[in-house]
């Protein structure tokens, strides 16, 4: 199958001032598009042509001879989730069941946010921080480069891109401020709760 760049679920100006239109123009329109283009080129004429994105991610993870395919498939998967994890005027209160699970598994909302920021800041170089379901329990994790929960046998609920292209135009080198703004002003908790219900 041929992969395409999904439209953003909001206008490029809708997340300002916490994520600028310029950042979205480059991040979605240039970086994500480049992953899509490379994935299509790398899978064309191979046994992976026609496979779903999930299948490609799982089939190529950890395979040295298919690292380039995984890198681009993983990043395409990650970004599809990332755009949906945000909304205009996001943040705020969580749906009840999500909040209950975070309290039960992670020690409370404040503790979860602290651990999420810590994971994102602690990811050396490029990568992601996540809220996942792992073996039936919620967990905060981090991954390098394009690695994602799907590749690791987990169910991703929330992902925050901590590659520099995600925040440098707006926050320069202040990665902690970016992740805090993501949690407090951008996250679409209803979407996260819907993914939890499907886990």
Give your account of this protein's structure.
The protein is mainly α. It has 2 domains: 21-84, Fe,Mn superoxide dismutase (SOD) domain (Helix Hairpins); 96-198, 3-Layer(bab) Sandwich (minor pseudopilin epsh fold), CATH 3.55.40. The protein has helices spanning 21-43, 53-60, 67-84, 96-106, 109-122, 168-171, 175-186, 189-198; strands at 127-134, 137-144, 155-161. Strands 2-1-3 form a 3-stranded antiparallel sheet. Helix 1 runs antiparallel to helix 3 (67-84). The two termini are 26 Å apart.
Broad CATH class of the largest domain: Alpha Beta
Give the beta-strand count. Answer: 3
Beta-strand percentage range: 5-15%
Oligomer: single chain
Structural class, from secondary structure content? mainly alpha
Spatially, the strands of the biggest sheet line up as 2-1-3
CATH superfamily placement of the largest domain: Iron/manganese superoxide dismutase, C-terminal domain
CATH topology of the largest domain: minor pseudopilin epsh fold
Low-confidence segments, given as residue ranges, are none
Order of helices and strands: HHHHHEEEHHH
Describe the largest sheet: 3 strands, antiparallel
Named at the architecture level, the CATH assignment of the largest domain is 3-Layer(bab) Sandwich
Architecture blueprint of SSEs:
Elements: H1 21-43, H2 53-60, H3 67-84, H4 96-106, H5 109-122, E1 127-134, E2 137-144, E3 155-161, H6 168-171, H7 175-186, H8 189-198
Antiparallel strand pairs: 1-2, 1-3
Helix pairs in contact: 1-3, 2-3, 5-7
